[in-house]
């Protein structure tokens, strides 16, 4: 994967955020699969391949709402924020989309002085990235997968304010 | 010359009458090309038009040609849009079509649309422009809300059919059901199973009471057993029922009245819904199973194991069965022994993520093929498949017209031999001479395409994913499948060589889709240059998004005439998604910024 050779600034021991969706520039293999290579080692592939298996999204969404009704009697996950003295917990079931979750997190961490960074009103130079840890322990960027898939796979949330997450944004500008 | 002058003695009405026996669209298209006189007679007497790709012709032109049109069928987005491979706002707008019809075809009675974007405004226009409007069928559409449905209910004086299948409908409340006229309605078929929100139950009951012609009624999940029982007591002549939520207690009045209501429905042939079905409610269904021809349990994960077996063993006349794979090979074995008349089977995956125990395997499919020799249509999701199973299945069921097999793990070989599944799928095309639709999966080399090109002469639609080795694979298909109409390919190593192997072929087809393959911009440009009668469109979301970022979030519409990205030099870039289709309508005028017409 090209990610391994890319130079990044970051604190020692900082974790790379894995983005499930490959950008076309990075595609070098003529095989052109859109799934992460390391998934091929696993006994069963994660459903990260867009549009696979070929089930109508209508049916998929219905299926999630049926399955998750049982699974999710209150899905509380820990939320950590870099530099904050303690963690918080949120019930993901209270939100039905990413926007609501982001707003809730902003409110939650607004009480810390670092919370000012979250306002992004142009005065401050730092921004934040929200990532989450999924069932396999991988750190994933929030927002790539449909909400229902995120709900069933999210184990922990992490608000990252160091330069690592932001470097990607700056590079792409 | 003699024949020609003989035809001139026939009055137009006679020729028109002769044409009325031609029900097959291609036949009518053919007679219209014989001579000007026949063209004119045909176009004025044409009552039904089918447009398989809404961009193949401009709406105005179609409407102007057939002013007497009564029934229009339209299809919009490419099939792979069902699997999120087509970005939102791609197109497929119904508005221009409805407007064109409103101007030129006042007698329109029926509109059927699939994968199109319909707005509430368009629905308003629809019901006001066509006084005789009778039937609206929307499949996999989006862009409208329950307000649009209210407009249809309110203004359509002679509405017979309102059929909503798997649409994304914005829920603006349950009031729409109240909008039907107060007097008796002419409703024959009402399907709102895909509505996610609440329904006004009293309105529903009253509506059913004043719809004496109702034959098909499909409810959504919000309708409880109590209401279902009341409704069924009102419609003992119902032939097609989609239940709401089938959750009831044993000693509840609802359950008891459901049983007695169902028993009265002697004409019931088709059942669907079964949301949250409790084993108890299934018991209520047993008495009517013996006459069922259609059963859809694909939204009922609770119906499995012994519950499923108990239900299905009564369904001896079943022709169509849709289930989840949670019924297992064991459940399929019972289907095979009970449903001897079965023609169509669909087995959907019940869990898209878990690496759990395999639910259906090749064993279930072999059992079905052994017990149900009349099977001609299959959609089967499974964890694994073997060549020998496929060979057996094709021997047992040589009548397949539709065969779609999806092995959940891409590129998975035959677990018994570790070989590709070329021979298994090859056996299907060799044996099933009438195969019109084919989807293949698992580990596959160019060899399977050799077989498809050589034997699948009746094939019209082929779907390929994660298969093949070289350009030769795709070339076999393009060269061999004479009747191919739709070809859709994803994640295969086919490149420009394959794309350009037989460019005139695409003029004989409706469309070609290629995504995550090995084609380059240069290849696509070459195709566009050689074939001006095709629209060669590439979908490139990433670059369009980059453009947006560069301009600080102000979306810049990249016009097709001034396309910086297409012409900025690097033609070797791989193309993410390609959609090619024949058209007489020229390039799209409504393409979003991420769709580039070459």
UniProtKB/TrEMBL annotation, chain A:
GO cellular component, one term: nucleus
The keyword Repressor belongs to this UniProt entry's keyword annotation: yes
UniProt record, GO biological process: auxin-activated signaling pathway; regulation of DNA-templated transcription
Subcellular location: Nucleus
PB1 domain ranges (all copies): 74-164
InterPro entries noted in UniProt: AUX/IAA_dom, AUX_IAA, PB1-like
SUPFAM superfamilies in the record: CAD & PB1 domains (SSF54277)
Entry-linked Pfam families: AUX_IAA
Residue ranges, compositional bias (Basic and acidic residues): 16-29
Residue segments, region Disordered: 1-44
Alphabetical keyword list: Auxin signaling pathway, Nucleus, Repressor, Transcription, Transcription regulation
Record note on quaternary structure: Homodimers and heterodimers.
Function statement: Aux/IAA proteins are short-lived transcriptional factors that function as repressors of early auxin response genes at low auxin concentrations.
PANTHER family according to UniProt: AUXIN-RESPONSIVE PROTEIN IAA17, AUXIN-RESPONSIVE PROTEIN IAA24
Family statement: Belongs to the Aux/IAA family.
Name this protein carries in UniProt: Auxin-responsive protein
Source organism of the structure: Rhynchospora pubera
From TrEMBL, chain B:
Record's GO cellular component terms: nucleus; SCF ubiquitin ligase complex
Domain COI1 F-box: 10-47
Key words, A-Z: Auxin signaling pathway, Nucleus, Ubl conjugation pathway
Occurrences of domain Transport inhibitor response (ranges): 67-113
Major subcellular site: nucleus
GO biological process, one term: pollen maturation
Molecular function, one GO term: auxin binding
Subcellular location: Nucleus
Pathway(s): Protein modification; protein ubiquitination
Protein name, UniProt field: Auxin signaling f-box 2-like protein
Native source species: Rhynchospora pubera
């Amino acid at each position: 994967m090209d990610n391994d050779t890319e130079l990044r600034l970051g604190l020692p021991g900082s974790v790379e955020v894995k983005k499930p969706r490959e950008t076309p520039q990075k595609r070098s293999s003529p095989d052109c699969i859109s799934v992460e290579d390391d998934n091929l080692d696993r006994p069963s592939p994660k459903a990260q391949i867009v549009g696979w298996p070929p089930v109508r999204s209508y049916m998929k969404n219905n299926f999630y709402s049926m399955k998750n009704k049982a699974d999710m009697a209150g899905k509380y996950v820990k939320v950590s924020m870099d530099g904050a003295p303690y963690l918080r917990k949120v019930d993901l079931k209270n939100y039905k989309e990413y926007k609501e979750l982001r707003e809730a997190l902003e409110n939650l961490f607004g009480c810390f002085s670092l919370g000012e960074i979250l306002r992004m009103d142009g005065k401050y130079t730092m921004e934040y990235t929200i990532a989450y840890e999924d069932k396999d322990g991988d750190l994933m960027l929030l927002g790539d997968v449909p909400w229902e898939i995120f709900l069933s796979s999210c184990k922990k949330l992490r608000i990252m304010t160091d330069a690592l997450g932001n470097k990607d944004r700056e590079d792409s500008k | 010359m003699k024949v020609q002058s003989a035809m001139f003695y026939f009055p137009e009405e006679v020729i028109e009458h002769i044409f009325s026996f031609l029900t097959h669209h291609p036949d009518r298209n053919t007679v219209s090309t014989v001579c000007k006189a026949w063209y004119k007679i045909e176009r004025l007497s044409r009552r039904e038009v089918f447009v398989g790709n809404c961009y193949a012709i401009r709406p105005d032109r179609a409407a102007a040609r057939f002013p007497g049109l009564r029934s229009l069928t339209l299809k919009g987005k490419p099939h792979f849009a069902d699997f999120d491979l087509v970005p939102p706002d791609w197109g497929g707008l119904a508005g221009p079509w409805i407007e064109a019809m409103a101007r030129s075809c006042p007698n329109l009675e029926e509109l059927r649309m699939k994968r199109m974007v319909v707005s509430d405004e368009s629905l308003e226009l629809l019901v006001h422009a066509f006084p005789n409007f009778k039937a609206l069928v929307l499949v996999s559409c989006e862009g409208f809300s329950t307000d649009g449905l209210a407009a249809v209910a309110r203004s359509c004086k002679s509405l017979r059919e309102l059929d909503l299948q798997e649409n994304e409908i914005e829920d603006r409340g349950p009031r729409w059901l109240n909008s039907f006229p107060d007097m008796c309605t002419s409703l024959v078929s009402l399907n709102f199973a895909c509505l996610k929100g609440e329904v006004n139950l009293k309105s529903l009951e009253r509506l059913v009471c004043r719809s004496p012609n109702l034959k098909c009624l499909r409810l959504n999940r919000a309708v409880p057993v109590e209401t279902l029982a009341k409704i069924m007591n009102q419609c003992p002549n119902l032939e097609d029922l989609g239940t709401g939520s089938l959750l009831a207690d044993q000693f509840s009045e609802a359950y008891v009245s459901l049983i007695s209501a169902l028993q009265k429905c002697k004409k019931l042939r088709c059942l669907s819904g079964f949301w949250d079905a409790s084993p108890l409610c299934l018991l209520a269904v047993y008495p009517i199973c013996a006459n069922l021809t259609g059963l859809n349990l694909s939204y009922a994960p609770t119906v499995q194991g012994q519950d499923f077996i108990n239900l299905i063993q009564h369904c001896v006349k079943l022709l169509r069965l849709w289930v989840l794979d949670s019924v297992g090979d064991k459940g399929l074995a019972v289907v095979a022994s009970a449903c001897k008349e079965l023609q169509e089977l669909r087995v959907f995956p019940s869990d898209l993520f878990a690496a759990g125990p395999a639910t259906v395997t090749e064993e279930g499919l072999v059992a079905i093929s052994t017990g149900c020799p009349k099977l001609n249509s299959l959609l089967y999701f499974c964890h694994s498949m073997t060549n020998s199973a496929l060979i057996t299945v094709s021997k047992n069921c040589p009548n397949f017209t539709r065969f779609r097999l999806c092995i959940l793990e891409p590129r998975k070989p035959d677990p018994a031999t570790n070989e590709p599944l070329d021979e298994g799928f090859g056996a299907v095309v060799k044996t099933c001479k009438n195969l019109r639709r084919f989807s293949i999966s698992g580990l596959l080399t160019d060899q399977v395409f050799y077989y498809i090109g050589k034997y699948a002469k009746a094939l019209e639609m082929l779907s390929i994913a994660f298969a093949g080795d070289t350009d030769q694979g795709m070339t076999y298909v393009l060269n061999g499948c004479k009747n191919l109409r739709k070809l859709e390919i994803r994640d295969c190593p086919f490149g420009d060589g394959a794309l350009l192997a037989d460019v005139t072929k695409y003029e004989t087809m409706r469309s070609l889709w290629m995504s995550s393959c090995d084609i380059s911009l240069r290849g696509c440009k070459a195709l566009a240059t050689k074939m001006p009668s095709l629209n060669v469109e590439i979908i490139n979301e990433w670059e369009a998004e980059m453009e947006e970022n560069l301009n600080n979030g102000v979306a810049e519409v990249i016009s097709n005439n001034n396309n910086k990205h297409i012409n900025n030099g690097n033609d070797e870039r791989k193309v993410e998604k390609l959609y090619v289709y024949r058209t007489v309508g020229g390039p799209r005028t409504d393409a979003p910024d991420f769709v580039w017409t070459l």
